[in-house]
Structure prediction request, 572 residues.
Amino acid sequence: MSELTRTIDRDIVIEIGDVPVRVRTGDSAFLHLLEKRYTGFVNRRSYAEFEFDVDLTPPGDVGADDDVRVLQRSGRWSLERGDFHAEWDSASKSGNIRQSANPYSIDSILRIVHTLVLSKQGGFLVHAASAVRNGRAFLFAGVSGAGKTTIARLTPGNATLLTDEISYVREQEGGYFAFGTPFTGELAKSGDNICAPIAALYLLAKGPNNRIEPLTHAEAGRALLANILFFAEDAELVKLVFASACEFVSRVPVYRLTFVPDASVWEMIG
Amino acid sequence: MTPKRYVARGSEIAARRLGNEMMIMSGRDSTLFSLNEIATVIWEAADGLTALDEIVERRICQEFDVELGEALRDAEALAEALAGHGLFLLSDKPFQSVPALKEQT
Amino acid sequence: MGGVSHVASLFEYCVSRPHHEGASVRWRSIPPDHAALEIAHAAKCELAQKTLRLFGSLRLRVTGFSMLPSVWPGDLLLIRRWEMEQIYPGDIVLFARGGRLIAHRVVFKTDDPKAPSLITRGDALPSQDSAISPPELLGKVSGILRAGKWIQPLGRLSFGARTVATLLSRSGRAAGILSRLRASRRRPCEHEALCQS
Prediction:
């Protein structure tokens, strides 16, 4: 069979948090970069919940902004930053992206899309490391330097890392589940593409000895909200995320975990 | 005679009680407020129909054993500060209609 | 945790404002007296690296002179995260070394796919930096903000610029003037990480 000379669209399905997103492009080199970047989260099946067509532009920014703008107009979302412009229709669940062949632009777009999707499902992305032990997920939240990467690095052999930087939380089956993500911090290692029910959220603090203290709901709510990732300027969505965070701390135990940076901390967890 | 003060909750906000404290988010600029237990009493009683001095006398002074004058001064300062952020509406007359106290379920 | 505003002794409340960090809005607590926080230089550099790694984008204020005349102290660089395989000679890249952030131009790129590396040099410097490995590479300069205008970085110096750069790199006197200028212009920025270039 002779080869067709026109560009054939190829696609890749990137599945994070059980949400498959198809990315379609005519550029096989770019596709290869995506496959490399999202190893472990690439799905071969044909079904996707959301679809994006990608138009690649030459490198060089579309505009000069590094702050992302996320806006909604009649169910049509627009995501804009200096290095990409994406539009997405929430009814047809399809959209298009204009960007250069940089997989990190798609990275930001995917994070934003997932945050928007999660907000309707009582979930959110949060600055926290997470790992699964004995079939239960534990989250470790904190600002830069609080110890997320340290706790992730110290994960023992019988625990599985979900992420060292951005945790994926969704409400389902009456509880909260954490999912592995390819969004990594210093550890530079993708998490496993698995999920588990969340047993606890720990707020990290450094100290001379290991200690776990319960927090009041209000303290937990403030701490969680201080670490949630959210991009949209849409007031309704921000309210949804606020409600999700408050609901989460009402149902999942939240503690302050003060710890010494060695393996002994994990003896207290799971 | 000091004019009566009526306080109502603002409408462009999302609020949720966590334990004894009230978490409130301003819809205007996403500023997050967290009121302590006593301030939460004012928040929940701010139906726009009850005067502030009545709220303070009935709900604050008796329950927390504080003197009315001091408590009322503090309550007025709180109401004004939060009104500045859009969380409260202030008036010298009872409000005609007021957003109901919505709890997230 | 967080800032507490004492309206009065009985009624207390905490306020947190959204804080744009990279591409996200996060609620951060406000210290009650809004005192400017002094952050150690090294901590700022680490934070800058984390922001770039996480959000793919970062702005840095230039304080050094090594990239004259293409990049001036006071310029604001827009950095985007890119993989090494997509970087080419002529690009200005950001890398971390010795607790500092440096933005220099790529002069050479090794072809070996097993051990890719970049050789860089400041336009106004006489010698090359030691090779940059993929973990050290943070990103590429995709724009420069100077006096309110955004400039696309050129892949190569114009003849005139190259002449100036060569003179600077060869002149000890120029180096002396530059370092005196550098000392007088250093000023801490709260919201932009310092970039020694």
